[in-house]
Design goal:
205 residues; alpha/beta; 7-stranded mixed beta sheet
Length: 205
């Protein structure tokens, strides 16, 4: 192997010499990762610590529409306290959202979180951390709306930011993120359709 590597180095053997150690390193890193995760998840010889506390539902509202109503209905069905938050990137839109909320929802609490630097994830994360600090054993369930359409190309036109928010909150302890889909089904070819909320929201902590 050494003779081959030396004599054929300039003819392409350098690639194999670099590739094989790199692959071996990657495979060992993957193996160590799975081993460490299994060790951390194992309850062998350990007494599990239970954290049972109140749950607060936070509805992340971008606008007030039919999908928002479904999010409110889902939050109410859980039978836990809930409140809605809107990140106020645009003061004019924030005022309009607050007006729509009063007219079309008419219940619950809508909190406008100001974001003068037009940030989304940082204000949400700060607000969730503030709610967590109010209870040592409580949970915060962030409810996000997700628009789902019938076809792949239509879905590509309506990519929501729920995945980004999930990543921003995933390393916070005692925080769950629930995606509530609301589907748009076209009933005929002229574009008319109806809105139907998904019966089984997906939840991940």
């Amino acid at each position: 192997m050494i003779v081959f590597a030396v004599t054929k180095f300039s003819q392409g053997a350098w690639f194999i010499i670099l590739l094989i150690p790199t692959l071996v390193f990657i495979f060992f890193r993957i193996h160590y990762h799975y081993r460490d995760v299994a060790h951390l998840l194992s309850l062998s010889g350990k007494k599990p610590k239970h954290t049972v506390g109140p749950v607060l539902n936070l509805l992340l509202i971008e606008d007030v529409h039919a999908g928002t109503v479904r999010m409110v209905d889902y939050a109410k069905s859980i039978k836990c306290p809930w409140k809605a938050i809107h990140i106020g990137i645009d003061p004019a839109k924030a005022e309009m959202v607050q007006k729509k909320w009063a007219e079309r929802i008419g219940e619950g609490e809508l909190i406008i979180v100001p974001s003068p630097y037009r940030q989304l994830t940082e204000p949400i994360r700060d607000f969730v951390e503030e709610e967590l600090s109010k209870s040592e054993d409580g949970y915060v369930n962030v409810i996000l709306g997700h628009l789902a359409t019938d076809t792949v190309w239509e879905q590509a036109l309506h990519q929501n930011s729920a995945f980004i928010f999930s990543l921003a909150l995933q390393n916070l302890d005692r925080v769950a993120v629930t995606n509530v889909p609301y589907q748009i089904h076209h009933t005929n070819g002229n574009g008319n359709g109806h809105l139907e909320a998904g019966p089984k929201p997906s939840q991940a902590s």
